[in-house]
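Checklist before submission:
- one chain only
- standard amino acids only
- sequence pasted in full

Submission:
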Amino acid sequence: MLYEVSFELNGVYCANLVETNTGMETAKEYFIQEKLDGDRSRFCGISEHYGSRKPGMPIHTVPDGWKGKHSKKLVLVDILCEYLTEKNFNADGSPSDDDSYYKIVQVKTERPVSEIIKEVREDGWCREMDGCDDVKAIIGMEDYVGDTLEARMVLSIVGHNGDIVRNKNVLVCVYRDTTGLRYDEKDDNNLVYLEVPQNVLSEYMKKHQLPKDWLDIYTADDTIDFFDYAKASILGIYPA
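Returned file contents:
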């Protein structure tokens, strides 16, 4: 079967033919991946070709068994960031009594989320933040104090494949100030939930010789050390 594909080349719309017996979607993916170097923005459309072949029109044959390259899954990662504004300083340049400011920024990545978590913990930044619109909005604030923005922790992952299996995770309530987050004065709240794998909680309970129903009866007073114990395995932090 012949398919006619249209695409853009140096500002000019062009057409080629693709021959395959495995369907239109295969023809499309083959042309994008092998002839456009994966640049989907240049691909314009595809249709079945029934007419005669125009003289000089290139024709590409999809090899038997061609599977293509599996595209990586783009995921969204929410990161809690801390920064300062001019309100954090007095007129003489000394620190004021105002707390620093927190904002959640969302970055896009194809990398494993474990790499993002590692960079945030070690550097207070990840490379996806360089072109992030949310980050640009903070830096562009009129009263933002330069070079004070730092990533504090990964809060949640949206649509990630493989790093999170939610039916094997649990939420554990802890005091905010045991996690490095400050007391939420606006909502008068000092509690957050930590999402961790079930096996991490099981190991914690075993270490402290806790009863099987502990998760049903505990309070945040019982989890003072849980963040430090589980911080290498925390998958998300959520408001309580």
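Reviewer check: The chain is about 20% helix and 30% strand.
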